[in-house]
Amino acid sequence: MGSGFARMADTIDDLVQTGRCHVVLLCSLDGGEAAAEKLAAEGATVILVARRAHLLDALAERIDAAGGEAIARPTDLRDLEAVDELVASSGLVDILI
């Protein structure tokens, strides 16, 4: 199982380094915020998803100020119509975390 994770990490690194990577991150936990900041710093465009808009906006501002690209999309993932709208409006998504 370990080698599968290594291959997945290599694939993520390859996508991020090409500048073509769009990542959707569920950012309601500190781990999601850290992942968003790291991936954005490495060149990924991150789409930040959680229910609390003010927290997403603050994270997006931090990422943008650090030179990254972040899009805040407040969404309640329990609302299936909202999830469908999020997916439809996000365009190409390479990674979902």
Structural write-up:
This protein is an alpha/beta fold. It has four helices and four strands. It has a four-stranded parallel β-sheet with strand order 3-2-1-4, with helices on one face. Helix 2 (about 30-40) links the parallel strand 1 (about 20-25) and strand 2. The model is unreliable at about 1-5 (pLDDT under 50).
Q: Name the overall outline.
A: globular
- Given as residue ranges, the uncertain stretches (5+ residues, pLDDT < 50) are 1-6
The helix fraction, in percent, is 40-55%
**Helix and strand composition category:** alpha/beta
Distance between the termini: 19 Å
Features:
single chain; 97 residues; alpha/beta; 4-stranded parallel beta sheet; 4 strands; disordered N terminus
Could you outline the blueprint of secondary structure elements for this entry?
Blueprint: H1 2-17, E1 22-26, H2 30-41, E2 45-50, H3 53-65, E3 69-74, H4 80-90, E4 95-96
Parallel strand pairs: 1-2, 1-4, 2-3
